[in-house]
Design goal:
globular, alpha+beta
């Protein structure tokens, strides 16, 4: 018997770190307050084509304006490594879907010793040809 897995059940199979699971779950649910609360007070979100958004309030404002109807689906969690000061760095690969297109993406998370997000760098992974077709 084949069972169909939801994207949420796939998420928990792909991502081992609960903070990162919560990031994707809350983002996809449109619960941007929850997403912003996962960051440290001075945490930084580095979205594609933007300078860093610093602090929970600024991240919340940004998500309320820019993340509507955007879904992020992790497909692979790379190895986590421990950095100085007990920080953990984790690379996640997946897709971003908007009402207009879907594109491969990566998220590089740095969590502090309390497992709050210090920094996330979001990159869209596309060839020049793919970017050109998006522009049309």
């Amino acid at each position: 018997m084949n069972t169909v897995k939801s994207k949420e059940s796939i998420l928990t199979e792909v991502i081992n770190e609960p903070t990162i699971q919560q990031y994707f779950q809350s983002l996809n649910a449109g619960d941007y307050q929850k997403t912003a609360s996962l960051f440290t007070e001075s945490g930084v979100m580095n979205p594609p084509f933007e300078s860093g958004i610093i602090g929970r309030d600024a991240i919340l404002n940004y998500l309320n304006k820019e993340a509507i109807d955007i879904k992020a689906y992790p497909e692979f969690e790379g190895e986590s490594e421990t950095l100085e000061d007990k920080q953990r760095q984790t690379l996640v690969m997946g897709k971003v879907e908007t009402p207009w297109f879907a594109i491969n993406a990566s998220w590089q998370f740095i969590l502090d010793e309390n497992l709050q997000i210090l920094n996330v760098k979001i990159k869209l992974l596309a060839s020049m040809q793919e970017l050109f077709t998006l522009k049309q």
